[in-house]
Structures
1.
Amino acid sequence: MIPRYLIDFDLAELPVIEKDVIVIGAGIAGLFTAIKASETESVLMITKKSLMDSNTRFAQGGIAAVLSDEDSPEYHLQDTLFAGAGLCDREAVEVLVHEGPEGVQHLIEMGTHFDTENGEYALTKEGAHSQRRILHANGDATGYEIVRALSEKATANPGIEIWDDHFVIDLVTEEGVCCGAIVQKPDGQKVFVRGKATVLCSGGTGQLYRYTTNPDVATGDGIAMAYRAGADIRDMEFIQFHPTSLCYPGAPRFLISEAVRGEGAVLRNIRGERFMERYHEQLELAPRDVVARAILNEIEETKSTFVYIDITHESAEMVMHRFPNIYEYCLRYGLDLTSDWIPVAPAAHYMMGGVKTDLNGETNIKRLFACGEVSSTGVHGANRLASNSLSEAVVFGKRIVERIRTLAPLTEQPQIVNEHVRTNVPMQAVVERRLKLQKVMVRYIGLLRNAEGLLKGQEELKRQLSIFQSILTKREEYEFANLLTCALLMAESALQREESRGAHYREDYPERNDAVWHKHTVLNRESDSMMKEREQHV
């Protein structure tokens, strides 16, 4: 059993810091929410590394919003619902497609510079989009540009206090209300940060897998601490593997953006054969789960470890202008995007599930909100449409702030003492434990799943539960406990969903089954069981 808190404490003995709004995390969701909230509230923003360390920074493709006269919110809605494989919440998608353009406008007002052509915003097209609606910045460095602009604005804002290198250990709740969080400072001291609203913007779970496009900080902390606090965790089986990450000796799994295929790149196996026509009528622009599984199949059939992405038929000028970041990065490893086929393979990329929220970003725990990849708003369903994630963060970030403004301040100081029998057992090196967990996830709970493997994976993961009986003091130890929590939630959800849908593929149940599984999986620690919530809005 996963305990309620990771550490022992007496709240009365901890120093207390008071703020109106506590924002945990520093990607687009955290930065945007903090900036909007600071207009009327005092804000504390806590990040375990720095403002520049988040998944947002690595987002290349862009941000999806309807800005062209040839496009419409209805087209964007239909594309999102199609990609989501029947599990999107239609109301949440309606919110996204109608409020997305205003969200982009807010980013522009906050200093983000998107690319233009002939005086208008340059729009591109990505996989499963029917129209050109993706804004980008500096070609393929959209996320970096957004984080740059928002970080500068947040740092200069007197209404936002920023704590770098601080680790949020747990959320503090009393009678179903979130009062704040316990935070560990860089020197190891623990404090209780109290606020009328707490917003989780802590990102995804990419580090569950050995090969991921995510940075080191993506350890599922927000999902795990919300689960311990009693929040509903929804659809954890749906993790998206990006089909094309650089797969080259000595190079990290760097993302080769979907936009490269959007601009005409093709996929070839190691024999040089273009293969996507055997898998889907949309070829290279099929939904990500289809492309990722096709690549995996080709890798197995050709007994290789990668396939190639080839954009050499396009002009070198266009490639270098449109993808300067990818071009430069590949060049570091002796690969020229304009003349070489680039070796790629799938890598863990984005968590579609997460902490369940309503249309105002609020969870089932009062005063606790979730925004960005940590949340499950209902927008993404079983498979996220490319470039909807950045839009989702700003649209729901704004809604969260509007809801927070209606909340009264907290009155009573919670009195909580948490004592658990823990032992100071010499822990096997956390690095080894983490690597072992990642291998289990890749082997049994990855792109292809079946009951036998999922049960085996679950069994292996449960052997690590002793971490929760240990005295934890270091960031790596907390992170491992959070990764293990998310891994167990994912294994359980994947085992329960006996069908294939979107990013979740079961070899023993290869067909989608709407009669039985047109619903969400919801896990809650308090009920210690899985609820199945039927989707009403599809």
2.
Amino acid sequence: MKYSDTIIFTGLLLSMACSKKGNNGTDQSVAPPLVLKSITIQDQPFGAVAINQPVQPVIQLILSEPVKPGTVAGAITLKDPSGNTVPLQAVASNGGITVKPNSSLSYLTKYSIIVNSSLQSLSGGNLQAAVNNSFVTHLDSSRKFPALTNEQLLDKVQQQTLKYFWDFAHPTSGMIREGSKHAPDIVTSGGTGFGVMALIAGMERGFIDKAQGLERIKTMVSFLKDKAQRFHGAFPHWMNGASGAVIPFSANDNGADLVETSLLMMGLITARQYFTGADASEANLRNDINNLWKAVEWDWFRQNSQNALYWHWSPSSAWTMNLKVQGWNECLITYVLAASSATHTITKDVYDNGWARNGAFKNGNTYYTYPLPLGENMGGPLFLAHYSFMGINPNGLSDAYANYQTQTKNHTLINHEYCKANPKGYYGYSDSVWGLTASNIKDGYTASSPTNDQGFIAPTAAIASMPYTPAESMAALKFFYYVLGDKLFKEYGFVDAFSLDVVKNNGAWFADAHLAIDQGPIVVMIENYRSGLLWNLFMSAPEVKAGMKKLGFSGPDL
């Protein structure tokens, strides 16, 4: 072969390598695949999930080659969380595609932009790899209600929340229902104690006529005296609001609940101190409350004279639950009232050994620069700083174990700082979206805290902390009301809890229920912040002063 023939032959081989024969004998070129070089939303790369995006986003695809316009519409889709296709416009230009939804998307919602391999270049190459990217639209930050002064806002929240205890109370007994989604005859002892205190705040604010409020509380007390089942003077957690019969809280929790009884008695003693009139109606109410209060056999709940109180007793299972009331938790009020009883009291040894566990309930660590005297790691759920202290004033209060003003304030500040730091990265947490406590969550109920954080905020946590952290609590209250109010602020005040985390919790979630034990602290603790009313009333009870002194407490109210 001559040199010139070699050149011709080599050129033929190269030509054959870049083509193939079609069925009709013609050559067809093999187009290179179309490559997505980048995809951005609002000129920023997507990352794992693009959050906080506008409801009219602009998505830009940059490709290795111009695309065939006829393949664009079928290759690009936008889908909502339910998998429904969202209408969009996709415009191809030299080297890219611009994608926009036809209309505004929903706020705080996760969407997916999908590009499949049917997208082709002008030369006929298909997209090398399909694309599926997600983004989350931002929160609707518009103000949902007209602006109010701080005092007007506190009035509004107290008055609206009070409807749970006035309008939604059981129609027969006036007792407070457990929750707006529970069976309508289930009423709660502790929630009723909270309700009595809330009604007193409402009467003092003029939200409820005092004469009508008196009649409502008399109805409750008559029911407790004449119909409600009692066991050694103590009431069950739940009962039927019409008959007074026990409704079991659990299999063996079908009798006395000493902690719920103490929350009820805290409310009744507060009412006794409020209704001081000489007329027969108020005098009879005070007498009935005293008889209920004196009948509680606190010392019997030591279970055979142990140096501790026990939470439950069952007429069918006796002490089977065998749960000591020991701290640190929401039950300080139980030991205070047991020590305050003139008829069935306990000694200081029971407090020291049972409640304080001889000092074992101390913490002493510092979190976010705040020392925590008592309790679990990082403080636990915030209701621990609320329930007992709806009546017990922690300001200036101390005993051998702690300064309770420091305890309640720092517990709250730790909770606030944790949410602000947001170590688990839940979308929506901030210095205005904070508050972990026991509440409903999506598909359940939990005691949220910094060590049990599942991304759900309960409005009661921050709002009921207002006496301890007024600035931080007011910031949260304003955000809950003005920004989230269309989702949170309903017929009976704020719903129980919410999550803004669209990604981890698979969509924003807002509770549709209210719970007595979460609504009560909102009304009562706002009032304690504003006027100290409930603190002043409860702490004015002579036997409470004597009981707390017996346990070693000191403070301005004692």
3.
Amino acid sequence: MKSSFQFRERGFALLEVLIAVVVLATGLLALTALQGALTRASADSKARSQVAAYAASEMDRIRRDGIVADKSATAAGTDDISLAAKAGGLSGLIQTACDITYSADTSGNFTTADTDCARNPPASGAVAYFFRNTLTLSWTDATGGSRALSVSSDISPLALTSNNVLVNRPPPGALGLRPIVRRENPVTEGMIPIATGGEDSEQTAATNPKPKLLGGDDGSYVSDTRFDVLTYSSDAPTDFARFNKRIETAVVGCTCQNSTAGFTGNGPGAALRAFNLAQGYRPTYWSGTAYRTPEIATEAVSTSPADVPQSALCDICCRDHKDPTGVTGPKFSPWPGQTAAHYRVDGAGAFVVAAANETYLEACRVIRVDGVFRVSADPKIQDNALIATQVYPSTDTAGSQLAGVLNNNAATSPALSTDGKSGYVDYVYGAVARLFFDATAVAGTGNAVDYAALQASSLNVPSYVPILPTADRRWLHSRIVMTDYLESDAQQRVVTASQDCEAPASDADKAHCVLPYIPMATINTTEIATWSPRASTDADARPANLASLAAKYFNFARTVIRRFNSALALFDSINPTDASDPAVDEQLFVQLAATEPTQSVWLNTPSPNPSTARFFGNPLNPMRGYAQTSAPLSFKLSWNFPSGNPASPVSGSATGDDPTASVTNSGICSPNTSANNTTNPHTCNAPGTTGVEISLAGYNRIQYSDVKDDCAGGNAKTSKPTCVIYTFTGATVDQPNGTVAAASATVVDPAKTGKVGEIIRFTLPSLSNAVANPSTVTASFSRTTTDATPSCDASNKTVWTIPCQ
């Protein structure tokens, strides 16, 4: 009997097979599409890489050509076959370029109203501007889709270089914002911050001036002197500061040519540089908040001669720094007494007004404004002040040889003392208050300020520095207060600030009210000023406890600096008035000697030599100003008698009265124990390097010759006296760094002038302290002879009247 259940046979139904085939086909089709997409993406990536490489090279070319080059963009919508070939064979490649002009407004922010993609410089050439060049490359991909790539760069005419490129600025909407710059506290040894009184502990300080030498640190000529005037806020308790303002400054001395023929331009961008050198500008000046972009000048210009090795900044210094007759507005030389003429130095060392095409001397301050160096109106050094350096060690008072006076070791360290720095800050506040707050004519253009009184109240401590009599060194530090001439807008800003000040109770309060609006810098000039010693006179004031000491116990260390640009540039005076009325300060020294010094000048205060000194360059061995007493210095003294005279010094005298030389009050040169002192040259010892006084004696004499005695008659002979008189004509000092002339001689006893017993004295301006190559002093004379007058006495003997006895 069969069951009612039936078993299925195993296998795939036709329907199932059909479904599997459909699924497999769908997957294969998807893989085929993916493979095509990958192929297209690879081709597109390769195309974009080729376009990007071409765009980069094209932008490099645009930057290299500079601001004056025409952009070579293909018109939009045009297929350029050569362009396609450059970009790797792409077809349909189109290049377009767009230049948007950004111009600076009065606040220094850059904005644009440009819409036509053309290079449109501002109508006023004095306005800072730049072009933002956007290069766009477009093409069609393999699927017919549109592709594009853009690159941009900013190109500016602000610098006279072949590569006028600026880093891209932020988008236009953020142009009004200022970047926040933080760095380590900028104050180093020699800088003294001045608090401006702001709420965020704002301070101002000038960095130590750094002279740049042509040829690097081993160069022999100063190119220019650079420093920054910084305004910053301290981020206590960290040692970082936020920089609010930086005025980048260079002071340069130049030789200029009174025409435009000295500079022709060469190399890439020569046309632009030639144009800029032919287009002068009026000065940049302080507006009350910033230095203004200068206006275009209309007068003829001068140039920096092409064959004179000097700073590149001399191009714009020579080009711009002039105030022709009738010019209006701010001037380069605005201060009373400044001259607008340009001078050269003739063969006799005198200043002569330079004529057309002649070279002349010039000095400028150059400030970076809107990214480019501009020649500014001349600043003026208002005062020069010495500041106390440290006592080290503070407890050592040994060494004084002067009864009742201790060696307190003042100024035995080159570092500034705490009291010296705080006293200087008070002094600056007093100067600012009197120049810009109290003055009725706030411009600072001649306001009378009693700087001596300010120094006496804040800085002149100690009143004198004791110094040991031999090889003792004391350190000195000199600073200047430098301000700009304020034009009317800056004057009004300062007046408003002083009027808005709430009941200032002190000089510091007054200064804090106006400091943010005045262009003032306090600069360390220790290694730039000229140093020299000065002998004390009876007219100089002395400390009460030392009033009984003779004047020779006292010397002054003197620091001198000219008032205008040439001083900071370490350049010669540029006109007859440049060296007049320098800023001077002195420090009194007293020698702790048991006996009165033999020389009136025994202090040595050397000035740094720009060709060898590394200004503030090595913190382990800093150059600083110093004064010291020195051990006796050896030098040679040679007599230069005219030809025809007996051997010099004159020898053969039976009385041993040959010429003698001595350092006044310090002993005979080359003392000789024999009857005749015939040494030539003499060897002398001086107590110092400057102000050494020389005494010369024994050079005038009587010579005898046998002649017929007319009074006695017959063949009798008599000795005829003849006066041989030597007149001093001058002395020179030959030393390793050149030859200098000594002062004219004076006769010690006028009654002995032209006599055998005449003694003269003259002063040497300087002596080299080089041991291997000491100084040689040459004293020169002219020679005259006068015969004695004979007469007969009652015994028929000849009596001679000798005029030189």
